[in-house]
Amino acid sequence: MIKKLLKSVREFKKDALLTPFFVVLEVVMEVVIPAVMALLIDKGIDAQDMGEIWKYGIILVICAMLALIFGAAAGTYAARASTGFARNLRHDMYYAVQDFSFSNIDKFSTGSIVTRLTTDVTNVQNAFQMCTRIAVRCPVMLIFALVMAFQLNAQLALVFLCVLPVLAVGLGILMKTVGPVFERVFKTYDRMNTVVQENVRGIRVVKAYVREEHETEKFKGVSAMLYRQFSKAQKTLAGVSPLMQFCMYTCMLLISWFGARLIVGGSLTTGELTSLFSYAMQILMSLMMVAMVFVMITMSKASAERIAELLDERPDLHDPANPVTEVQSGDIDFDDVNFSYKGDASKLALRDVNLHIKAGQTVGILGGTGSAKSTLVQLIPRLYDVTDGSVKVGGVDVRDYGLEALREQVAMVLQKNVLFSGTIKENLRWGNEHATDEELVRVCRLAQADEFIQQMPDKYDTYIEQGGSNVSGGQKQRLCIARALLKKPKVLILDDSTSAVDTKTDALIRKAFAEEIPDTTKLIIAQRISSVQDADQIVILDGGAVQAVGTHDELMANNPIYQEIYDQQMRKGGED
Known about the structure:
single chain; six-stranded mixed beta sheet; 63% helix; four-stranded antiparallel beta sheet; 10% strand; alpha/beta
């Protein structure tokens, strides 16, 4: 896991290596200062020799200035390395998500991915910076200070060794207790982010149904759970400080007691005792910082595992070794297709599907809710792979195409229309980033969108808010259809994409398709028979299986499901 995360250091490796180098130099200066102070006291102040006082005073100033310079350098390199590491980590995670197939994305909630990209990366970044600075500084300081203390007086230095087992046991219990709590905390973070995102995204629905109080209670519940879990962790961590204080003051008292006796006995000087106090502070502060490092590592361990989990996720869909890069035609063939979202043959969403669609045909797809209409068309651009059988486009199995080449020629307007913040032009150019203004106007006329765009204050430069919140559902659908048409695809799939437009506009869109893109294969999932009545073929799906295929007249003559739908929609409409 650590090895995988450290790959994201990349161009900041030099900064990461220079940080501990300057930390060691800073520590050397800080350890030298008490020794020089002892010489200043013994040879200068006690001996009343101004020459020695000046000499060691100047050395002290130089050591202090060098410690400051080395410390500033270490801090600068550590900040650069840690922030660069975090930037690369977010980059790697974001790009990993871009490569995910739909089945991979299904494993992670939106809130979870956001938490991993924000809170978890921040925790790992802090731990990384602490490891390159504090985790290097503390053991180096501990070793150097102990060596200097033993050189001054080995008997008194033994006092430090007495507290180490106490601290080691205390920190071990701490990590074992706090680790699982932080794992639960970050899962709760996921839930809280999900609650917030759902609320913000669906705020109009919340207000329309006067459910603000319900949403507030839901947020308060998950927020309270997060509070309780963090409180439990912090209460446990609060035990570190008293433990460190106990060890520190015990050491100081023992050094004072035994040091005073040694001074009286003449085996220890005042300067040496002063230095020992300084080394005692350095050693104990190092131990305290070690405790902080352990705490940070404990917190970041759960975050690091969650980040590694996302980076380890491998896309289910891959380009073949020698991919086909050109789609010859819009012919579509389903041969004995079975499909399960979980790859479980006993839980099939589609079963025994055989369909043959010629290039340029218009095919309507009807069926009840849950009949797998969307699932069927999602196999064509290979958003999912079939469990059994094959799907062919242009006579070639979709698994033999390069994903980019296939999806460039299969335009799909999804059931949930999505527009991004930016101008109408910028949204349309998702279909073709090099499209001219004339091409934008042309596809918008085909999608019956040009009329309402021309009525907007800035026309095609009108700014679309996030999610398309400043346009109606029907306008959003027409813009998404225009965006798909801009790709000039060989296959166009409309997944219930005209449900929010009136029947007249729906008819005009279908007429434009027939006249302007006759060679494009058009698959239209619809709830209204009027949307598919003129199609070359109409496919009736029922329970994930093809129940019937035929023209409107054929199905009216032979298919009871189609007849029932027609009666409900058309004849009732006529009576009304």
